[in-house]
Amino acid sequence: MGLTHISVGYVPLLDSAVLIAAQEMGFAETEGLALSLTRETSWANIRDRVAIGHFDVAHMLAPMPLSVNLGLAPLDVPMVAPMALGLGGNAVTVSEALWSAMKEHGVPEGVDAAAAGAALKRVIERRTATGQPPLRFGVVHPESGHNYELRYWLAASGIDPVREVEIVIVPPPFLPDALGAGRIDGYCVGEPFNSVAVARGGGRIVTTKSAIWRSSPEKVLGTRAQWAERYPEQLSALIRAVTRAARWCGDPANHDMLAGILAREDRLGIGAPVLTRALSGRLDLGGGETFLVPEFFIPFERAANFPWISHALWFYAQMVRWGQVTHSAENVARVTATYRPDIYRAALAGQGVPVPAANAKVEGALTEPTPLGAMTGTLILGPDGFFDGTQFDPDAIDNYIAAQASGVAA
Amino acid sequence: MPHELSILVVDDNRIRASIIEDGLREAGHVNVVVITEVNEVAARIGEIAPDVVIIDLENPNRDMLEHFFALSRALQRPIAMFVDKSDIGSMEAAVDAGVSAYVVDGLRKERIKPILDMAISRFRAFSRLRDELAAAKSELEDRKTIEKAKGILMKTRGLSEDEAYTLLRRTAMNQNRRVVEIAQSLITAAGLLEP
Predict the structure, then answer these.
(1) In this structure, are A184 and A105 located in the same domain?
(2) Do A42 and B85 touch (CB under 8 A)?
(3) Partner-chain residue, chosen from A51, A169, A173, that has the shortest CB–CB distance to B64
(4) Which of A88-102, B42-56, B103-117, B180-194 has the highest mean pLDDT?
(5) Which of A53, A140, A323 has its CB closest to that of B63?
(6) In whole angstroms, what is the distance from residue B138 CA to residue B113 CA?
(7) Is the pLDDT of residue B77 over 60?
(8) Rg for chain A (alpha carbons), in Å?
(9) Which chain B residue is nearest to residue A49, measuring alpha carbons?
(10) Domain count, chain A
(11) Range of the domain at A53
């Protein structure tokens, strides 16, 4: 029997692992699919090539399908996100010079977001007082989890991300070089490009996405709404294959093999030992010793593949907060319709994979791992808190947006 | 008479950039700026104030450029459209050719279309040229490999040049492989057998 071909675009980052493993480990074939994977150099190319049909689906920044549907992208092709590709996986890395300055202001070893933010605030105050130029941070895309979590962390630490620092866009593989050359003072990016800077020397990881917002979404499977409608069975089969691949990727017993696959020159082209750091959560923060960051990158557990509407709405709230879109009921409706938990749930019905029964949750409500009612079996969710202790209730999005606009914690 | 369009070409491939530039000048556009070093874009985009930006798709800095355009939109320089939001056909042709274009919002389509069409056709011509060069180069390599294999056969089995080639070709046909592959295998094997 012939396999059905699906073309898949990805950017060479650690969380493309679930798509690569779906093909390489035979999960796609079991579902009657053959994935042709194409590595891309920019998120803009991913978006455009999905839009014109070069790719059926792609590894996408979680806010990207939202920004397309909200009219922020230079084309009008409705997109949907029927599944997420994992939680966490990003970190904030700073230059040795900035790290030294933060140490003078008492930053402890580790990845504590509040402590690192407090030290950074004091560094910035001193720089301002002595007339030095603002610090410059790199992120990979304006509509990315990286941009929003960096800004959230800065703002919640009392630093104005608009006036007190400069945020520039740099492609992920160029960030360690830009840091090394002194063009930027720090950046927020997905692995392996934090560990790459550490391994080369000259970079220091100061906090992680998982510390800023525990169990937070990073990439999604993005596709044209039209493709999802036209080929529902292919999409369901793909969701099943990628879900099983995600479970495989999350099993520590498979990390060495996975790192070997991803290390290949035609995939990420980065040495396996550096990739293993993020897979295992055993990071070298820059001091040469291993520091365990539990839940650093979660490809499958904790409903990591479920496209929560509350995640989409939180990203939207950040787009409003930083002036990318204006808040309206119509925009909320567009955002809500972009993430498609219904498609995910239908694809996995009867597959023995626990799937949440709700479409949204209050982000930050769970302070410890909590068993949840699921369609099949038991599902452990959370903890999912923001480091500053605020909560995001998607039903009270108006209040949240208003509170963020006034600079008061929501 | 509409004002002269200011056109910015961002391409780290100097040869291709100059092919595009020539095309634009031939078409009567005099305000053409080429930037091959992408870090320059940030510093110069304000001064250039382009109406049209042409960039190659292999350039990982597209995300950075789009961000500049978004910023300049905030500064009342409304760049950032892919020809026409609804014009998937043009976009497809452009992406296929490996180029993308951004134009100032509100510019009339008939002024932009010829520019994009020219960029697309020159990008295609460039790719063709590159493919042909690569093919020519690999053909030359193949011929060298076959010559070397023939030499080994002539020396070790005392064959004439024609006989050596016939043997290689017959083996290739029997194994349903290319002559150059058989030649390569022979060279590798001979290398292993050397004292």
Answers:
(1) yes
(2) no
(3) A169
(4) A88-102
(5) A140
(6) 37
(7) no
(8) 20
(9) B95
(10) 2
(11) 4-87+216-262+300-359
Assess if residue A369 is contained within a domain: no
Length of chain A: 410
Our CA-based measurement puts residue A68 at a distance from the nearest CA of chain B, in whole angstroms, of 11
From A212, A243, A275, the end of a domain falls on A212
Please give the Cα distance from A368 to B153 (Å, whole number).
74
Of A359, A381, A397, which residue is a domain's last?
Answer: A359
Q: How close, in Å, is residue B186 to chain A by CA atoms?
A: 28
- Considering the domain architecture, whether residues A240 and A256 belong to the same structural domain is answered as yes
Stretch A158-162: mean pLDDT: 95
Examine the domain organization and report whether A225 and A353 are in the same domain: yes
Cβ-based contacts of B61 with chain A (< 8 Å): 42, 171
- Are residues A221 and A354 both part of a single domain? yes
Could you give the C-alpha distances from B11 to B19, B62, B86, in angstroms and in order?
11, 11, 26
Measured between beta carbons, the chain B residues lying within 8 angstroms of A227 are none
pLDDT in tens, A255-303: 999 999 999 999 999 999 999 999 999 999 998 899 999 899 999 999 9
If pLDDT is split at 50, 70 and 90, which confidence band does A389 have?
very high
Contact A45 B62 (CB under 8 A): yes
In a domain, A112, yes or no: yes
**Nearest-Cα residue of chain B relative to residue A168:** B64
Contact at CB, A141 and B88, closer than 8 angstroms: no
At the top level of CATH, the class of B6-131 is: alpha beta
Half-sphere exposure of B67 (CA within 13 A, CB side): 22
Q: Do B63 and A52 touch (CB under 8 A)?
A: no
Residues of B with CB under 8 A from a CB of A: 39, 57-64, 66-67, 70, 74, 80-82, 85-86, 88, 91-92, 95, 100, 102
CATH class of B135-193: mainly alpha
pLDDT at A230 over 50: yes
Interchain CB distance below 8 Å, B63 and A171: yes
CA–CA distance, B10 with B33 (Å, rounded to integer): 9
From chain A, pick out residues whose CB is under 8 angstroms from the CB of B58: 41
Whether residues A42 and B67 touch (CB distance < 8 A) is answered with: no
Sequence-separated (6 or more) residues with CB below 8 Å from residue A36: A5, A6, A7, A8
Structure token pair of residue A409: 């914690």
Note the pTM of the prediction, 2 decimals.
0.86
CA–CA dist B144, A23 (Å, integer): 38
The DSSP-derived string for A250-307 is H-GGGHHHHHHHHHSTTTT-S-HHHHHHHHHTEEE-SSSSEEE-TTSEESSTTTTT--
Residues A206 and A241 occupy one common structural domain: no
Give residue limits of the domains in chain B.
6-131, 135-193
Tens-place pLDDT, residues A2-41: 899 999 999 999 999 999 999 999 999 999 999 999 999 8
